[in-house]
Amino acid sequence: MKEEILQNIDHPEQLEKLYRKDNSAFIKSFNQIYPEYKNHQNIQFWNLRLNYKEEKISLGVKKELWAVVILAIVAGLYANISNLPKVNPELFFLKNTSFVILPFMSIYFLWKQQVAVHKIIIIGGIIATLAFYINMLPNAPQSSSLNLVYIHMPMLLWSILGYAYLGNHYNDNNKRVNFLKYNGDFIIMTGVITLACMVFNVLTFGLFDLIGIKIAQFYMQYIAIWAIGAIPLFATFLIQNNPSLISKISPLIAKIFTPLVFINLFIYLMTIIYTGKYPFNDRNLLLLYNLLLVIVLALIFFSIAEKREGEADKWSYFILLGLSLVTIAINIIALSAISFRIAQWGITPNRMAVLGGNILIFIHLLLVCWSLLKVIRDKASSQSIKDTIAKYLPIYAVWTLIVVALFPLLFQWK
After folding, report:
1. Is the dihedral of CA 387, 391, 392, 394 positive or negative?
2. Do the Cβ atoms of 51 and 208 come closer than 8 Å?
3. How far apart are CA 407 and CA 414, in angstroms?
4. CA distance 407 to 412
């Protein structure tokens, strides 16, 4: 085999045939001749191909790991406020769950990217103000405007997380798209770690149950509570230090579910038109529609974010265009339904929030569709779609801020 390799050293096709004929003998012979011919270009290529070792999972530098540990401890201390006397745990977590998670992730990115101190102070001040604001709100379970604050506050903190992720490049569209990619990876990594923790918890409860000790309530209240802030932080830490760890999973999920969701929604839309069952009088169905819009919009964004520049896969763009058009049609139905409800029964905080969100999604989908059409017709690159997505993201943050800060005042806490 050595002689055959040397005879065909300048013929890549023949080397490939030799490798496929008997790869174990090829590898053994190649490693024997490599030291003598290591300066040859083709030999260098084959050495990388045959002897490349996958990167091991990295825990980063110790300084960064300790920073994450400290942030996780502080987040855990924040969560343990719920265990203090005279604190209502349910009300505390209703208002503060997002503050146990997202601000500490923001601090991690600000620290990691060495953002200027004055920016860190400004962002920290904004987060502290929002935490004070939400905890000073009255306890009024029947108030729709307050419930909207609780729903939209995590979205506002997510926007701040996005700003922290961008660091000193907040106008960079590519980095905004990378933030969307990070969110997809984060969901997967957090899900895996959470699942592992759940298995560990069940095992722990089972072991103690065998000796007649019920520790579930104590364990969840005083031990598992520390994981609320720690799991997202360590998930983010692993993603940042091991970019290839789950980078192939998100695109795979997007490729599998995008056509499936398109077929599902298309059949559903045809069924609605055929049966005439529109959600004009069904409030729960309308809420489900809005959740569906957000999920499909996220799926479209993740699918496009994973596209590489110059990737010649027009079929996938046609699928995304079809999914966008079907989603626009469903959005029109949702907009018609909420407009009907406003005309019939008047304006309420929930209806205004749903109407505003639907309008923003509708406009964004139209812009994405237009960009997809231009790419399909070879009048623009795939980067134009990413730019369309990235430039629009701050508008969602502005709307979320309006709902959080102004709706309670506009609707007089109703």
Report:
1. positive
2. no
3. 9
4. 8
b/e per residue 25-55 (b: at least 16 CB within 10 A): ebeebbeebbeeeeeeeebeebbeeeeeeee
Sequence ranges of the domains in the chain: 2-51, 62-241, 249-410
pTM score, whole prediction: 0.80
Q: What pLDDT shows up at residue 106?
A: 94
Residue 387 CA to chain centroid, in angstroms?
18
At a CB cut-off of 8 Å and minimum separation 6, what does 141 contact? 147
- In sequence order, the 6+-apart residues with CB closer than 8 A to the CB of 167 are 109, 110, 113, 114, 115
Residues whose CB falls within 8 Å of the CB of residue 52, separated by 6 or more in sequence, listed in order: none
pLDDT-derived band at 57 (thresholds 50, 70, 90) equals low
Q: Which two tokens stand for residue 355?
A: 């109407």
Residues 6+ apart with CB under 8 A from 241: 58, 59, 60, 64
Query: Which residue is associated with the tokens 């023949």?
Result: 14
The position carrying tokens 């920016």 is: 119
- The Cα–Cα gap between 218 and 84 comes to 14
Question: b/e per residue, 189-204, with b = 16+ CB within 10 A?
Answer: bbeebeeeeeeebeee
Q: Which helix (H) or strand (E) holds 166?
A: helix 144-166
Q: Are 270 and 264 in contact (CB under 8 A)?
A: no
DSSP H or E stretch at residue 7: helix 2-7
* Cα separation, 118 vs 283, whole angstroms: 46
Query: What would the two tokens of residue 385 be?
Result: 């779609």
Backbone angles phi, psi at 379, to 5 degrees: -105, 0
- Tens-digit pLDDT profile for residues 99-152: 999 999 999 999 988 888 888 899 999 999 999 999 998 888 788 889 899 999
Q: Using an 8 Å Cβ cutoff, are 358 and 331 in contact?
A: yes
Structure tokens that stand for 14 in this block: 């023949």
Residue 381 has φ and ψ, to the nearest 5°, of -90, 165
